[in-house]
Amino acid sequence: MRKRIEEGVYPPRTRVPSVQRLVEESGIATATAQKVNVGLKREGLLYTEPGLGSFVSPDAREILRKARATAEAD
């Protein structure tokens, strides 16, 4: 998911697949898909609109850019 956000497959403010859809598409366990979703929300890459689903944060690419720059500096 993070790579897809970074590559623009899921642009800012775009709805991302549900946990169940992630399970179906990738074959990962439901618990793993939920952890991915929670982790991306914690990082600020996703936000949830109650009743509508999860969406890519407007500043997701900037968050990823800063994280990459920090990792390269280390």
H/E order of the elements? HHHEEH
Main sheet specs: 2 strands, antiparallel
Overall shape: globular
**How helix-rich are the residues, as a percent range?**
55-70%
Report the portion of residues in β strands.
5-15%
What structural class results from the helix and strand content?
mainly alpha
Multimerization status: single chain
Trace the largest sheet across and list its strands: 1-2
Q: Which whole number gives the mean pLDDT?
A: 93
Distance between the termini: 24 Å
Give a topology summary.
Elements (H helix, E strand, L loop, with lengths): L1 H6 L11 H8 L3 H13 L3 E4 L3 E4 L3 H14 L1
Helix pairs in contact: 2-3
The gist of it:
This protein has helices at residues 2-7, 19-26, 30-42, 60-73; strands spanning 46-49, 53-56.
Report on the architecture of this protein.
The chain is mainly alpha-helical and 74 residues long. Helix content is 55%, strand content 11%. It has four helices and two strands, in the order H-H-H-E-E-H. The radius of gyration is 13 Å and the shape is globular.
